[in-house]
Amino acid sequence: MNKIKVGIIGTGNIGTDLLVKVQRSKVLECGMFAGRNPDSEGVKRAEAMGVRTSTESIRAIDADPNCCDIVFDATSAKIHLMHAPILKKLGKFTIDLTPAQVGKMCVPVINLEECLKLDNVNLVTCGGQATIPIAYAIKQVQPDVEYIEIVASISSKSAGPGTRVNVDEFTQTTREALSHFTGVPNTKAIIILNPADPPVIMRNTIYARTSGTFKEAELIAAIHAMVKKIQAYVPGYRLVQEPVAESGRFTTMIEVVGLGDYLPAYSGNLDIITCAALNIAEVYAQRKLGLKEGSAS
Amino acid sequence: MSNLLFFDSTLRDGSHAIAHQLTEEQISAYCKQIDDAGLHTVIVGHGNGLGASSLQVGLSKLTDEVMLSTARRELKKTKLGVFLIPGFGTIKDNLARALDLGVDLVCVGVHCTEADVTQQHIEYVRKQGKDAYGILMMYHMTTTERLLLEAQKMQSYGAMGIVIMDSAGASTPDLVTKTMSHLSSNLNIRVGFHAHNNLGLGVSNSLLALQSGATIIDGTLRGFGAGAGNCQLEVLAGLLQKVGMETGLDLYRLMDVSEDIVAKLMTKPQEITSISLISGLAGVFSAFATHVKKASVRFGVDPRDIFIELGKRKIVGGQEDFIVDVAMNLAQQNKPEDVYELESLL
């Protein structure tokens, strides 16, 4: 079967996890795995897989634009700001996994369709991908929600240097995206790095407040339905316990067990964002190849 | 002139003890009276710092803006400080606004092994021409060598000093001496200590810190703070006078503010309860106490068992949502033979 070529810029945790997923795809293949760090574990892994690599970062794609049609940027917010205009000029469909927010924010289960028509889409953050769909589902059932707060707790080991140096954008972008997708202005995002060893699985709590009365049964049903939809592209996504309304707040706790493609299963924060990115790229590729959707994997 | 700096966290750590319900009148009266007591900085805000008012760790009565502008009006000689934990507050939503309101000094705090997430915030504050200090919390959870590496990172970002927080009040005197000596002899910037009183060592550990090279003490009047409370500043001031260390502090003023204002802020005595003792022994964040008590009532579980289990899971500040999970699991287990051995944690 024909495959659409992708380029991955950034050879850290996220880029490498993505590479493993791309190589498993029926419609995608990696034409370029480029970063700046010659000692990157990811580069070694890519070479072992027979994937073309470069330490010239975006210049590798600029020098050979035919190496890919789709580009995943897994560098950092600051660097993506420099990459974005170059990728636009090259006409690459760009999926940005940094919190740079150059392109439209995409949470596939909410707005995939409109994002496929654009040239640059942004994956918000792992915390955003994990919690926004739940917040969105809550708002659909309960339009009088006045406040939404999310807490994303990820293991220290799964947060690479890129995530750490971007922790402020990570928090800010997650909060802004919560407001953007739910239409609730008053939101809060809290990001916790948990140093516990053995590392804890990515855990997210979504709180909602209303001055009205929670439609608890409807909310729970809507959340179960949303979890199921997300599981179609993030297999390890699940509810920790039944959502509950107590002391004036509605609480949902979910966790994401990673596929263990690059880092071990506790790193659900990698999977939630790389699975979302892969989903966008696969649907884009299927359209381009004239295939029926759902035949990707 | 004393070389020592005293950071006063009464209106920050004390917020934990009253579920972040400080009023404008209280902040105003406190700051007015404390201004010429010789303190370096008065830190004001939610117990978890800027932007932390939340369902997760508790909602503040007042916004950060109101708390800071109220304190700003009264503090003329003393610096106005804030505490910020990256991941709770952001530069855009919280820090920039706080500096606009006249904050002079920012303590950027993280778990003791995560210093690299403070880079953006420390650099930002320094770039704005304000004072930035790096705070390493829960320091008993890592090694002295690792602590130095983390402190050196903060030093490289521009931190003017490093304050080590014994957040769980789990420090033994030996650990204080060892840590403070190691850091102060290997860093080019000031080193400080923030004690908690779970094992009754808040004041004495602070004295030890100073005798081991620390030049900053972060404490609170009357020990007002999370869990068992903090190093009681007026007691330390008296003790330092007695051992002949120059502090520049006005002891009587500190005592007066403690009696006239802080005593009235407190809704319960700042005592070492069994819960505080067990959290110190388990090495768990003191501010969990309120949440643990609630969960213990709700699920009918001994709060001491919850603390021990939290200690085993190495839960860190901000993970208050795990408390319910732990309590629920303990309630479900309900097997009397499953009593955890405290020794396994020590």
Describe this structure in words.
The complex is a heterodimer of chains A (297) and B (346). With 297 residues, chain A is α/β, with parallel strands linked by helices. Chain A folds into 2 domains: 4-124 and 272-289, NAD(P)-binding Rossmann-like Domain (Rossmann fold, 3-Layer(aba) Sandwich); 126-265, Dihydrodipicolinate Reductase, domain 2 (2-Layer Sandwich). In chain A, 41% of the residues lie in helices and 24% in strands. Chain A contains 10 helices and 13 strands. Chain A has helices at residues 13-24, 41-48, 58-63, 77-90, 108-115, 126-141, 161-165, 167-182, 216-231, 268-289; strands at 4-9, 28-34, 53-54, 70-73, 93-96, 104-105, 120-122, 145-155, 187-194, 202-210, 237-239, 244-246, 249-256. A 7-stranded parallel beta sheet of chain A has the order 3-2-1-4-5-7-6, with helices on both faces. In chain A, helix 1 crosses helix 10 (268-289) and helix 6 runs antiparallel to helix 9 (216-231). Chain A is globular. Chain B is an alpha/beta fold. Chain B has 2 domains: 5-265, Aldolase class I (TIM Barrel, Alpha-Beta Barrel), CATH 3.20.20.70; 274-345, Helicase, Ruva Protein, domain 3. Chain B is built from 14 helices and 8 strands. In chain B, helix 2 runs parallel beside helix 3 (64-74), helix 7 (173-186) packs parallel to helix 8 (202-211) and helix 12 packs parallel to helix 14. The longest helix of chain B has 15 residues, at 251-265. Chain B starts with a strand and ends in a 13-residue tail after the last helix. At the A-B interface, strand 8, helix 7, helix 8, strand 9 and strand 10 of A face helix 4, helix 5 and helix 14 of B.
